[in-house]
Amino acid sequence: MKHRWHNITFNITLNLIFIITTATAGMASAPQKAPLHFVFDMDDTLIRWIRPNEKVSGTVIPAIGDIGGYRYRVLDGAPELIASLLKDHPGVKISFYSNGDRTRNHIILKELKLPDGRPVFDIAHKIFSNSDVEKVPAAAAPRQNNGYGIFNSGTKEYWKKDLKKIVSDGESTANVVLIDDNPAFVKKGQEKNLLFAGKKPDAHLTAINELGNKSVEKFFTDRAKLARVRGIIDRAYELARTEGIFISDALWKIQWTTNNAGNLSYREELLRDMKLYRRGFKRLRSVNPSFRLATAIPGTTPLGCTTRHLRQILKNPQ
Ligand SMILES: [Mg+2]
Questions:
Q1: Which end of the chain has fewer CB atoms within 10 angstroms, the N or the C?
Q2: What is the pLDDT of residues 131-151, one digit of tens each?
Q3: Which tops the pLDDT comparison, 193 or 312?
Q4: Distance between Cα 63 and ligand 1 center (Å)
Q5: Mean pLDDT computed over every residue of the chain
Q6: How far is the CA of 170 from the centre of ligand 1 (A)?
Q7: What's the gap in Å between 42 CA and the centre of ligand 1?
Q8: Going from the N-terminus, what domains does the chain have, and what CATH number goes with each?
Q9: Which protein residues have a CB closer than 5 Å to ligand 1 (ion)?
């Protein structure tokens, strides 16, 4: 009798272990199963319109002529960033959500080429434009206070990108990442989905003699920002996998902190975290071995920079 009881207890224990193990494994892997979505803002995230006083260099869209009077510079690593996500995350869906005009957006995405020559337009899951941005008068919209002021636009209108448009009906937005230079476009309740691409640069510097009163560090953090973005994606994906959480939750943990006043603030140290730049740079290089980070250092190739140079500069900012 004693023996039987022992066996029953043993079986119950085994079953419990089995249930706990499978439940834990299920929890850890569930967020990974849904498709990952990356949604790119366009202006000052992937491209930048060339101001009349700026030098025309690098990859320009369109190569000849203009689009409605404008020409755009492709930001360093933009094609590589998209290509590396397609390579490293099979089944990933890449979309674009810009407050620009639909026709303009389509022309740009057809002209923007991946390192293998494919137009970005051809790999796009969805493309949304200004008619898809929700324009809510500030007076009518509940302000996102309670420490969330960073997601306010500070203007008369709220312009919001709704990530529910990206996913299918009933699909969760927990695996959607919005990469944008402007947190004010984030819709209420979708704050976790933002990967902040860094503030828009006030100029597109191409050489050291254009630095003026700006530091070499500023030059790098502006020009290498998409390498950093790629590094954050890697870090967030890793954290999501390790902790069995959604990538949006991982982005939230990594990027934001609450200051003494109870307001949400971006972890500024991420902007000078060399590990992120280096990690992202490796990923960008993996789809285009000739990709270099821009440098303002005399004596190196005009726009070439190795991670060693970058590390030296960020250690000793001018
Ligand atoms: Mg933008």
A1: N
A2: 999 987 765 555 555 566 678
A3: 193
A4: 22
A5: 83
A6: 28
A7: 6
A8: 40-315 (3.40.50.1000)
A9: 41, 43-44, 181
Residue 317 Cα to ligand 1 midpoint, Å, equals 27
Span from the CA of 77 to the centroid of ligand 1 (angstroms): 16
Q: 21 CA to middle of ligand 1, Å?
A: 44
Ligand 1 centroid, distance to 166 Cα (angstroms):
18
Report if pTM > 0.70: yes
Instruction: Pick 262 or 122 by higher pLDDT.
Output: 122
The one-letter amino acid at 212: G
Give the Å distance between the CA of 253 and the centre of ligand 1: 23
